[in-house]
Structures are given as C-alpha cells and as structure tokens.
Write a structure and sequence with these properties.
This protein is of the alpha/beta class. The chain contains nine helices and eight strands. The protein has an eight-stranded parallel barrel with strand order 1-2-3-4-5-6-7-8, surrounded by five helices. Helix 1 crosses helix 2 and helix 2 (39-51) packs parallel to helix 3 (65-71).
Amino acid sequence: MHVITMEGDSDAHAHTAQLAAAIHPYVHYVHVRLKQKGAFELLALTRSMANLGVPLQQIAVNDRVDVALLTSVGAIQLPANGLPVGDVKSILPEGTRCGVSVHSLEEAQAAERAGADYVLYGHVYETHCKPGVTPRGIVQLERICRLLNIPVIALGGIQPRHIPELYTAGASGIAVMSGIWEAESPVAAAMAYRRMADRVVHSL
C-alpha cells in the first residue's frame, strides 16, 4: 500500500513527518509530494521523516530525482510528463524503484516499455482532490492490469470497501491520500486499509 502525503504549508511539515512515522508500519511506501514547493522543502520533509524513524526504503520521492539521490530513498515517482524513465534509472542506485503516474492505457504501456518498475493509475473513483473530473473507473483499470506485465497501483477516491474489486480487477496495490490524511485518526485509517488489503490478498 502506498500513502501519498497531502500538500501543506511549511508549518504543517513537522506534523506530516510525525504522522508518516506513526503510519509507516502499516504501509509499504510513503510518497513525499509537495508539488507547490521547491526542492529544499521536499528534501527537508524527507529527512524529517527519516529522522523520525520512517525507513528510507519505505519513502518514495515525487518527481525530484535530485532529492531522491541526496536521500537514497527506496523509490522515485515520476509524473506522466516527467523525465524519461531510462535516463532516471541509469543514475539511480541499484535497487531503487522507479514508478510512473499514468492516466491511460497508452501512458501505462509507454511507461512499461521505458522500463518503469510499476505504474500508479488513477483516478479510479470520484474524489474531491479532482473536482469535476470524471473518474476513469474499474473497467479501464482492469484492461490496463490485463495488458501490462508490471504492477499497477490503483489511485483515487479509494476506501477500504473498494479494495476487493480493485484486486479482483488485477491491481497489485492501492495508493491513498485523503482517505488517510483527512481521517479523524490517520493511524486507525491506515490500519483499516491494511487489514482489508491483507484479507483480500490472503483470499485470492
């Protein structure tokens, strides 16, 4: 399970790092994403998480390859229109995963051909993070999962109750943002997602 950090101002970063430290035992990756901020703040947040006990191998840095290299995190997450996967992988340390965010079958196939280790596909369900944008739905997710040979991680509006149909459609995992960060108890929410995911995986 992947958890993507919410956007926030500088004052919120300490709180974000503390929450990441609390939820990391229940997830596979914490994605550090500050799209409206610069590299300095992204680097500071990543280091704060590591200092509070989030293993570097469980941190995925969004877009900024320089920050990923400086911190030796476990993964880099590239946007669909980001740097070429092959060029990025050529300078990453061995074992560092490279994922690509995609929004269509064509983008997903292009990412696979370029050497991506996985794709993050969405948004599958309606989400207030993308108001007015029609969700892409479970049928398209299923088609992408069927035609790709690399893991497809589903993203967008996911609640624990959605996990069975996502995994049945072929998703290898899920990515969550507001479902955890905006919950009354982010830790309890992370645990609920993980329990359901584990239950579904064991039943397949």
